[in-house]
Amino acid sequence: MSIHEECGVFGVYDPHGDCARTTYYGLYALQHRGQEACGIATINDRELSFHKDVGLVGEVFSADALDRLGGTMAVGHVRYSTTGGTRRENAQPLTIKYVKGTLAVAHNGNLAGTTELRTAFEYRGAIFQTTTDSELIAYAIAQERLRCRSVEEAVCQALRDLRGAYSLIVMSPQKLIAARDPWGFRPLCMGRRGDAVVFASETCALSAVGAAFERELDPGEIVVVENGGVRSIRENCENASSHMCIFEYIYFARPDSVICGQSVHEARRNAGRFLAREYPVAADVVIGVPDSGLDAAMGYAEESGIPYGTGLVKNRYVGRTFITPGQQSREQAVRIKLGALRSCVQGRRVVMIDDSIVRGTTSRQIVSLLREAGAAEVHMRSSAPPFVSPCYFGTDIPDKDNLIACRYSVEEIRALIGADSLGFLSLDALHQIAPEAACGFCDGCFTGKYPISV
């Protein structure tokens, strides 16, 4: 099993451009954050239009669909279901019509206390169309808008009562609003392209649409774009503190992104360097498990002096729809997605770097692939510490019953996956992989200690 991304959000205001197509390219750059569903909502002369469905960005949007959307403002979303499941109605952006007009909402993250919040809304007459906590945010904003003078004031008031992770983009007929939770769990940045203002989960999406990175939103900050003007609301920043998900550096983000001032690529190379110091071994080649293990493998090779090689090749034409339920199907999927390069590993002592070990089944299959290709020894290294707790803030790390590190010792895990040796990145090293990052981190999945009560 792999850890899956939370979601990706994108928003753009451009009085001169085709915002639907800009968002389309931005979502393509964020596709790694979610492959189950996607959508775009736009504003044309204050009228809201949208198109969304299950599937990849290239599958959901045709040229005709983008032509119909157009737009001087747009918000987009790629989804992986951390809550709510894979259902067409859960695709985002969520769009609502209410007494004050229309709203489109795109959300990355998970809220805490959603059961109680949903029940409270239902007793006030709310009828939910989805099973996601993102709809709770939309209802909260719409409810506050009935009492507030502006949509941005409604967003500010609504977010004060919400706990958990949210990087959020809200679009009304006249305004584009971006917001981060006061704990800063999920990334959100802003850029510019001429007169256009762009928001995205990662800087790689800004680059994809030709926008220059300007800055990241601070935890608790709300940024409002209206008629090209940009202003910041910082009322919710007073008690805010940054707890960026450390797994953004280990796995989620694209290596060409920069988060909190730290290159993701360099953070992963640093993890590999620390692994080489903490778990040295006599070997002939260092390989990485595509894709997020590759940079860490480079770092391990640089630090250890062992040559780096391409020992595993990824089939990039297998979509998630190929995978069917059941253990046998999951095991077959690994063989379809990955192939061992015999010329690199045959007769050699191999150090294999992967981003993490969750259940251990995938690791066991990859070790088996390498042995079948003739590897003399396979030494596995994980660029993350052992998972000991689930995530409540937008990552699908399972409960403790399904985490191999909660049931077995490191030596027992080594034996179960069939490796000759095994090493996990230490917690001390984990907090040193991103020395340039101007933020604190959440490492609850590795420690069981969270920034807020869950």
TrEMBL record:
Binds 1 Mg(2+) ion per subunit. Residues 7-228 form the Glutamine amidotransferase type-2 domain. The keyword Glycosyltransferase applies. [4Fe-4S] cluster binds at C245, C391, C442, C445. Its cofactor is Mg(2+); [4Fe-4S] cluster. The active site is at C7. One of its GO terms (molecular function) is amidophosphoribosyltransferase activity. Mg(2+) binds at S292, D354, D355. Pathway: Purine metabolism; IMP biosynthesis via de novo pathway; N(1)-(5-phospho-D-ribosyl)glycinamide from 5-phospho-alpha-D-ribose 1-diphosphate: step 1/2. The keyword Nucleotide-binding does not apply. It catalyses: 5-phospho-beta-D-ribosylamine + L-glutamate + diphosphate = 5-phospho-alpha-D-ribose 1-diphosphate + L-glutamine + H2O. Keywords: 4Fe-4S, Glutamine amidotransferase, Glycosyltransferase, Iron, Iron-sulfur, Magnesium, Metal-binding, Purine biosynthesis, Transferase. One of its GO terms (biological process) is purine nucleobase biosynthetic process. Its EC number is 2.4.2.14. It comes from the Bacteria. In the C-terminal section; belongs to the purine/pyrimidine phosphoribosyltransferase family. Catalyzes the formation of phosphoribosylamine from phosphoribosylpyrophosphate (PRPP) and glutamine. This is Amidophosphoribosyltransferase. It comes from Agathobaculum faecis.
